[in-house]
Amino acid sequence: PQQHGREPLFSLDAVDPTKLNSLQKKVFEPEWLAGTSVGELMFQADYHLKELSMGEYEQPVVGMKSCFDFYMEGFEQEWTAREWFIVRKAEIHTSEDSVLIPYVKMGVEAREQVLKNGNLEDAPITRPNHPLVKYAEQFTHNFDLIAERKGVVYHLRELAKASILAKYLVDGGVCLDSSWFDLAGEVQSAGVLEIPQLWNERHNSQVQVQDGSIVDIVSSGRNVFGGVDFGLDRFSVAAPRVGAMGAVAARLGPRAAARVGPMGRAPSLTFGGPARAVAQSLSGVAGVSGSLRAVAGPSAVFSGRSAMAPRVGGFAPRLSGFAASRLTTPQGSLRAVAGPSSVFSGRTAMAPRLGGFAPRLSGFAASRLTTPQGV
Length: 375
Fold this sequence. Notes:
Layout lengths: L8 E6 L9 E6 L7 H17 L13 H6 L6 E16 L5 E17 L2 E4 L8 H11 L1 H7 L1 H21 L22 E2 L6 E9 L2 E17 L24 H7 L12 H8 L44 E5 L2 E5 L39
Parallel strand pairs: 3-8
Antiparallel strand pairs: 1-2, 1-8, 2-6, 3-4, 4-5, 7-8, 9-10
Helix pairs in contact: 1-5, 4-5, 5-7
C-alpha cells in the first residue's frame, strides 16, 4: 500500500488569483482522494462552510451572523480571505475494557490574504475585527451544535476521528491483517475539478451624487477561499488517555497501566496503509454490518474483551462476511471476529456518547450496552 507523510487535505483555490471571478480548482492531498467518498465529503463540507459564511443560507444557530453581516456593520474595506476546518484537540481514550475511542475538538480558522507576485498569500497580521475572523470564532464556539444540525459537518468530524485512529495505529507500529486494506470501495471518477466561485461573492456599490450629477461610483468585493486541513502532525496520540466520560470515573489499575504504557512514542505522522484503509472505506451506511472483538494474550498491547470498529459519522467499514483474522501487535496479537452483535457489552442500556453525540446504533442486533468507564 501507498504511504504518505500527512493526513488527508483538501483546498479550494483560485485558478488565477489575479482575476476576481477566476474559477476555483479542487486540490486534494494525496491526489488519490479525488473520486473517493472522503474527498467528496471534504469538498462538500468546505463548500457549505463558504455558503454559510457568506449568508447564502440561514445560519444553523440563532444569533449567528454571516461575515457579510459583519461587513455591513462597519468593515468597509475590500478583502480576500480564506477559512478552513482544523482539529483543535485530538486524543485517543480507552475504556476500562480497552475499547479505543478517538476524541476530537474541531473549529474553523480564518486568515486575510494579499496578492503577492501573482499568488494569494496570508497577510502577516489578520485583524481581530475582520468579518471572516469573527465568523470563524462564532462557528468554532457553536461547532458541536452545528455538527448536530448539519450532516456534512458531523461526518467531517467523524472523518477526523477516523484519521486520529489511523494515526494512532500507524504511530504505534500495529501490524494489521491484509483484509483491512481491502475495505475501501473502488475509486470513482473525480469529475469536474474546477467550479465557479460566484456563489461565495458579495458586492456592493456606493454612488456619490453632487448637484444632481453622479461624481463617483465605488464598488467593493469580498472573496472567500479555504479547505480542510486537520493539522494532525501537531498531535501525538501514540498512548491512549484514560479519563472520565460524563459522570463515570475510571482509574487505571496496574494491569491496565501496563497495557497502555508501552505505546508511548514521540510525535510523528505517517498517513499510510491503515489510515488509507480507514479513510477510503467510508460509504453512506446507516448502521454497522458487523462488529470487531479483540481477544488478546497476556502480553498484548490491546487486551480486554472488545475493541470498537472504526466509525465515521454513520459510515462504518463493512465487516460482515469476513473470516476470522489476526491483528498482530509488537507485544501480542488480536483476533478480529466479524459478527452481528454489538461491540459494547455490559448491563447498562445506554449508548456511550462520543464528543457529545451518541453514535447511531441502527443495524445492530439487540445487545446489552455499557458506558465505557474512561475516555
